[in-house]
Amino acid sequence: MNYNLAEFQASYGLASQLPASDRPEFVFSGRSNVGKSSLINKLCNRKNLARVSATPGKTATINFYRVDKIYFVDLPGYGYAKVSGAERHRWDQLINRYFDEMRQRAILVQLLDSRHAPSADDMQMLEYLEYHRIPFIVALTKGDKLKKSQVEATKKEFRQICMPFGCQEVFLTSADNGQGVEELRSFLEKCLEVQE
Ligand code: GTP
Ligand code: MG
After folding, report:
1. Which of 4, 19, 41, 96 is least enclosed by beta carbons within 10 angstroms?
2. pLDDT above 70 covers what percent of the chain?
């Protein structure tokens, strides 16, 4: 797969607008500010493919990127405290309708901040993924912020938390220094081979 062949397709605020499922999809999920857009950019060797925001919670849309022969699907970040009840409801509807649709989901990448224990919203997301039997892996983000001495213990802790929910693998990544990104790419490609 050629990650350099990446282009933004569109942002969808309503599930009814979603494009036809005409190719496999890698889905990226995580709380606001966890680093979804940054990781997508890093995977595609791009600076500004996906918009990186200093102010979280701005984009309650599902963003589609065409990358070679697949889609990257950037789900709207959750857990942003300042959103209203109405916005939260819209988020729930958008996500539920997306997962209700029969689509060619190859794997979901659940992003968790490597520096913090998962939030209540993160745990709810893990439960959601398990309940709906959505195949997923975890990408721990901002790994560059960890001390070398913390790396192994952090991976172990997150494995212990995530594996019981059906998580297939945990990767420690950084969009800053690129650690873990090549391993993540290899895993994604393996998922595609299984699909074909
Ligand atoms: P929303 O779109 O609001 O849901 O956020 P997001 O999950 O897409 O996060 P985004 O990629 O916009 O990054 C949020 C902030 O974290 C930005 O200030 C990034 O520069 C920073 N960030 C993302 N990834 C990394 C990383 O690997 N290392 C470090 N040090 N900072 C990161
Ligand atoms: Mg984003």
Report:
1. 4
2. 95
Cβ contacts of residue 102 below 8 Å, gap of 6+? 21
pLDDT tens, residue by residue, 134-143: 999 999 999 9
Place of tokens 């963003």: 63
With 0-12 CB in 10 A as exposed, 13-18 as middle and 19+ as buried, what is 184?
Answer: buried
Q: What is the mean pLDDT of residues 133-157?
A: 97
Residue to probe by mutation, ligand 1, list 42, 51, 52, most atoms within 8 Å of CB: 52
CA angle (41, 36, 136) in 5-degree steps: 115
pLDDT at position 132? 94
With a Cβ cut-off of 6 Å, ligand 1 is lined by 30, 32-38, 52-54, 56-59, 77, 141-142, 144-145, 174-176
- What span, in angstroms and rounded, lies between the C-alpha atoms of 34 and 56? 9
Q: Are 138 and 171 in contact (CB under 8 A)?
A: yes
Asked whether the whole model's pTM tops 0.85, one would answer: yes
Inter-axis angle of helices 36-43 and 181-195, nearest 10 = 80
Note residues around ion ligand 2 (Cβ under 5 angstroms). 36-37
Contact partners, residue 44, CB within 8 Å, separation at least 6: 3, 4, 6, 65, 67, 72
